[in-house]
Amino acid sequence: MSSGHDFEISGKTPVAEEVKRLGFNRFMALAEYVRDLPYGRPLDSEDILAPLKEKRGTCSFKHRLLSTVADDCDHSEVKLIVGLYEMSERNTPGVAAVLDRAGIAWIPEAHCYLQIDGQRYDFTGLSSGGSSPFESLLQEHIVAPAQLHDEKAQLHQDVISRWAKSYDWSFEEAWALREDCIKALGSNKAHQPPADFRHSS
Description:
single chain
């Protein structure tokens, strides 16, 4: 993220005020901190600030927080994106064992990230693979932070359902496989955040 995309966290909303109280006055500093938090689902899925309180987050929780702060500071150029991509070991290290057991090379996954002035910024903090998920995108959708949970779930379920039919699997079987992949990512002790966050135009 270039310095030109950095800005002061100046909003007066409860979320922005709490972020400032925790010591974050610039968006880039907050984004870098969030990126380096461990990967994992917070217990309180309703709390925008959950990644900062529980010191962990998935792509959804981390980018929902960042996009909410940007909105609160009137930076509409920061957009929250849900991208559907072909998740494999090559672009998401840690899922190989799960996929291999199922005898498949990839499964559709929904990934959240930011788009700023036409560039994609991923602050999830997972290890970089041999390729970026952005190279295997199936769809992209701009969503509002408040609608992320419902819209991401619907978009992902629609894609998984169509994909499952190609293998003569039920939706439930395919979704369970996806959940196993996410668990594998959360327990992957070998992963380290990349030295610098990835971005793509």
